[in-house]
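ARCHIVE CARD
Drawer: 12
Card no.: 0347
Subject: one protein chain, sequence and derived structure
Cross-reference: see card 0346
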Amino acid sequence: MDMHLSRRKGERLRRLKEGHGYGEKLLLEHIWRPVVGSFEHLHPEYEVVDEDGNYYYLDFAYLRDPGPTDLESDGFNPHARDADRNSFKKERRRQNAIALKGWNILRFSTDDIREDPEHCRRTLRRMLERWYGEESADWKGLSVYQKEILRFAIRAAKPITPADAMDTTGLSNKHVRKILREMVDLRLLEPASGEQRWTRYKIKKITELCSVI
């Protein structure tokens, strides 16, 4: 936090001093730190500007390839039921603007963080696995090449080819096709094209993947 404070000026500094409150600290202490262990790539009160020149501030921006993620801690406002339609509209515009800038969005309620932190941690772990190819503890039974192909498939977010797997592992076409078929048998991947000779493979849905690895 001291590092970010020293680098900011004006409105960005004010937002960091005043906007970083109870819910944001709760997310860091009870969810982020237990799962990740460090705050590398994480930026509090990050500024985003949309195509119309509107400024939006994210609770936390996780800036890392293959794409940024907006992490939000949402407290229940006791006056929420009295919020006018204009406020409701602005919040929807804000989320749409962030999504259209190419951001992933993950939101946690402060109630959920307090009452069921393990559920929130599982969600964060799945985010890191699905969107960033982080290695799950359950991957320990996979070979080095299977892990590399799986990471690549997660990051690619589209069907991969044997040529992609060859580039990733440095193995021959024959060896790669054997590994890909093994990964289909393990239900890590599934064929995305071809009938007798598969030419593309896609990753299983994350909910299915978590149940088999």
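Annotation on reverse: The first helix runs from residue 2 to 7. The chain has two domains: 2-132, 137-212.
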